[in-house]
Amino acid sequence: MSKVRTVEEAVARIPDGAILMIGGFMGVGTPPRLIDELLRQGKRGLTVIANDTARPGVGIGKLIDAKAVRKVIASHIGTNPETQRQMMAGEIEVELVPQGTLAERVRAGGFGLGGILTPTGIGTVVEEGKQKIEVDGTVFLVETALKADFALIAAKHADYLGNLDYALTARNFNPLMAMAAGTVIAEAEDIVPVGVIPPDAVVTPNVLVDCIVAKEVRHG
Amino acid sequence: MSKVRTVEEAVARIPDGAILMIGGFMGVGTPPRLIDELLRQGKRGLTVIANDTARPGVGIGKLIDAKAVRKVIASHIGTNPETQRQMMAGEIEVELVPQGTLAERVRAGGFGLGGILTPTGIGTVVEEGKQKIEVDGTVFLVETALKADFALIAAKHADYLGNLDYALTARNFNPLMAMAAGTVIAEAEDIVPVGVIPPDAVVTPNVLVDCIVAKEVRHG
Amino acid sequence: MDEKTLIAKRVALELRPGNLVNLGIGLPTLVANHLPAGVNVMFQSENGIVGMSPVPEAGAVSGDLSDAGGSPIGAVPGAAAFDSAISFGLIRGGHLDVTVLGGLQVDQDGQLANWMVPGKMVPGMGGAMDLVSGAKRVIVAMQHSAKGTPKIVKRCTLPLTSVRRVDLIVTELAVIEPTEAGLVLKEVAPGITPADVLAFTGAELIVPASVPTMAIAG
Amino acid sequence: MDEKTLIAKRVALELRPGNLVNLGIGLPTLVANHLPAGVNVMFQSENGIVGMSPVPEAGAVSGDLSDAGGSPIGAVPGAAAFDSAISFGLIRGGHLDVTVLGGLQVDQDGQLANWMVPGKMVPGMGGAMDLVSGAKRVIVAMQHSAKGTPKIVKRCTLPLTSVRRVDLIVTELAVIEPTEAGLVLKEVAPGITPADVLAFTGAELIVPASVPTMAIAG
Predict the structure, then answer these.
(1) Superfamily for domain range D3-206
(2) Which CATH class, in words, describes the domain spanning B7-214?
(3) Rounded to whole angstroms, how far apart are CA atoms C8 and C1?
(4) DSSP alpha helices (H): ranges in C93-213?
(5) A194 Ramachandran zone, left/alpha/beta (phi>0; psi -120 to 50)
């Protein structure tokens, strides 16, 4: 059965209050049509796991502007004053995670690991409430896996089976998140026939992708 | 300064007793000229971290045949009766590691992690002597990072900066090992000018590779 | 039909369209030859590919494309290649729908031993521990007994592969489902009675009043 | 020459041919403009590329290629792109030779605080904690004081970025090396005396008998 759905159908699967992983880094590699459709359908109470909240009016920043987000797990919100304002006002919950640790926690969720041992954060506020463990005389922080209900992925190409590739720095968290969510919705710049993406160029294997957003119909 | 060296020069850096990670899976993706040169230079007392020891006369099996190996850390030795014979005779030490755990332990070594938490091996002989840790009610085994003195890598293409790509199932442990060793020696089927491997097709970034084995000179 | 073919054909019926499937070396590999018509599944080879297929024709092989035993394979259109960490990420992360593995012993708790015989055979676990711990569904495909010695036993005497309860056991005599209550006899092979199965089984079996005869693919 | 340029030029002298270097946002970014002739380094942007470069000419940008601030960049021949896990694997795995970061405070133990001011500014640590914990060499490039308040202090009052001792502090007044014995004044800026540096420093400095004047690149 084809995995292609309209953007309306794809986003309609996402209930209010869902936990979303959203790819992108300052908006680069964030799926634009999925973001706009979340807004159009008026989703509320979302938890967003992402590197950052970009800027007002950009990428995940649009969800913040619309107050669609209840909680953010991110490495950085400094570029979005509206996220900071909502956090200070107690309107939104923010969990800050070192960027490398965030990448590994998402990866661990997708790879069936309970977590990873890292020196990052030891001796800082990041270690508060977390287990520590000693290995060969070095103390590491135990950082646990993150999973999500949905991953919203921006790819360069998708084929009709769901194989994905990415372009340059728009790759960022996308392939990690595509492993770590119950349902993976991918928006690609182009959808190509099966076999067009060579096996070695596939970054996200088809079996991980549940839904490919249909291309917009354009005339002229 | 160019990273290209003759196979003799590249292998001459490896002392007897060194800890080597060697790419490959049943010989596919194992660097053939580096293996042969290790034999020709008569290395002894090596520790080899690899998925398997292939078969007698094939890939890492050649090092076993020559009794160049003191210790093997691998997921599988069943296809090589000579490895089993040496193990039973106490001539070689063998540490068996579940294949997924081996991949993650090598990766952890290269990624600066102390280790990872996995359910694989819980309740089996694999857990003997290892720490366990509970996360959200589930008990995980702590599997620690592996590192090596040298990684011997088989690539499809190298460029002259050291960027590498791989072909199909010959990729296997190679990119993981290229992150996890002090010195990385890469043998490629072909060496191409810088810029020929597109940035998105590079699997092992140039900065990881210390030494590229020069192509054989052929005539006719 | 020989016993291995019977087992492979019955296991094939467990696969669903769209499944990602990993077949162990040996008997489980035969399952690929008996897929019911219309059931398209993706086969993974744990050395780094989703979309493995038989070599399409004599001579059409690549030195860079092999199965977990090192033998040449083909690839379907839409295949994807990746490193060993991603390969086991698929297995351990719950993305693998079905693994079919051979067995040395399965016990009353549904726990499998299939990777070593102490003092005799220490091949290493390869990917077996990861597959059993991580796959959504674990099917053990094996002969019911070894030279008359039952392989389905009260408690495994061989080292366990995982403490996870496997989901189904398919032998040339029966289909058995390990459950919380114990091993349930679900089907018997054509011409075999529940009493026959019990005679070759070293563990207690829960035998329903009526046990259907095994369906067989193709 | 303004203070920031002075700092950037001095930091540039720390880079060696073949180094993999990560420059933080703001002042550290300027270092790329002052590489000594013949020193080829690879710049990493932690959002996923090794081999970033300035945009080569007006209009030659791609929506898929940006720096960690989201601004368009270029790529040198031989650049490599990868996901965030690999990017931080390079940083955390000891593969990054040098990171140059801004600072809010550095203390007598060489510990850095540079990611938040409680109650005022909580931007998040981004990659800073990973960079300081993982890079082979950490250089803090910052102005010596903030509106007259010393940024080099006995003990950080702001939340630490890492407990790791940074390797070098470069300001518009001085080059200071944190060591096990304490902060050592290594160089002073042109026209600046050790006494001047001490006047603007909130921590003890070890001042050798002779302190050379800062060298400056290009």
Answers:
(1) Glutaconate Coenzyme A-transferase (3.40.1080.10)
(2) alpha beta
(3) 11
(4) 128-134, 194-199
(5) beta
Between the alpha carbon of residue D136 and those of residues B106, D26, D42, the distances in Å are 20, 21, 15
- Strands B148-159, B181-192: pairing kind: parallel
Between the two ends of chain A, the Cα-to-Cα distance in Å is 31
B114 in A contact zone (CB under 8 Å): yes
- Please tell me the distance from the alpha carbon of residue D48 to that of residue A166, in angstroms, as a whole number: 11
Is the CA virtual torsion D173, D175, D177, D182 positive or negative? negative
Indicate if the alpha-carbon torsion angle C22, C107, A111, D94 is positive or negative.
Answer: negative
Most C CBs within 10 Å, among A191, A207, A208, A209, to test the C interface: A207
Residue tagged 């002969």 (tokens): C143
Closest CB to B116: pick one of A116, A166, A167: A116
Would you mind telling me the total number of residues written for chain A in this entry?
Answer: 220
Residue keyed to tokens 């590491």 = A140
Percent of chain C's residues with pLDDT above 70: 99
Chains B and D form CB pairs within 8 A to the count of: 57
Q: What ipTM goes with this model?
A: 0.97
Mean local confidence (pLDDT), A121-135: 97
Q: What are phi and psi of D200, to 5 degrees?
A: -105, 15
What sections of chain A are H helices per DSSP? 7-12, 32-40, 60-65, 81-88, 99-111, 174-177
In contact, A44 and A69? CB cutoff 8 Å: no
Q: Kindly give, in sequence order, each residue whose CB lies less than 8 Å from that of residue C156, ignoring residues fewer than 6 positions away.
A: C105, C106, C107, C111, C112, C113
pLDDT of D37 reads 86
Instruction: Answer whether residue B217 shows pLDDT above 80.
Output: no
Answer for the pair A189, A170: CB distance below 8 angstroms, yes or no.
no
* Angle of the D84-92 helix axis to the B99-111 helix axis, nearest 10: 60
Interchain proximity A138–B167, CB inside 8 Å? no
CA C190/CA B133 separation, integer angstroms: 48
Q: Which residues contact A207 (CB under 8 A, 6 or more apart)?
A: A162, C20, C42, C50, C90, C95
pTM above 0.95, yes or no: yes
- Backbone torsions φ then ψ of A178, nearest 5 degrees: -65, -15
D205 CB burial (10 A radius; 0-12, 13-18, 19+): middle
C-alpha to C-alpha distance for A62 and A68, rounded to whole angstroms: 9
For the CA atoms of A85, A88, A90, A96, what is the dihedral angle to 10 degrees?
100
- The tens digit of pLDDT for each residue in A187-200 reads 999 999 999 999 99
- Known catalytic residues of D are 46
- DSSP3 helix / strand / coil % (chain D, rounded to 5): 20, 30, 50
Taking the C-alpha atoms of residue D59 and residue D52, their distance in angstroms, rounded to an integer, is: 17
The domain spans of chain C are 3-206
Structure-token pair, residue B73: 């850390």
Under DSSP, is residue A64 helix (H, G, I), strand (E, B) or coil?
helix
Query: What is the DSSP-derived secondary structure letter of residue A197?
Result: S
- The tokens for D151 are 């940024």
In whole angstroms, what separates CA A126 from the centre of its chain?
21
Report d(CA B171, CA A200) in Å as an integer. 9
Write out chain D residues lying below 8 Å of A94, CB-based: 122
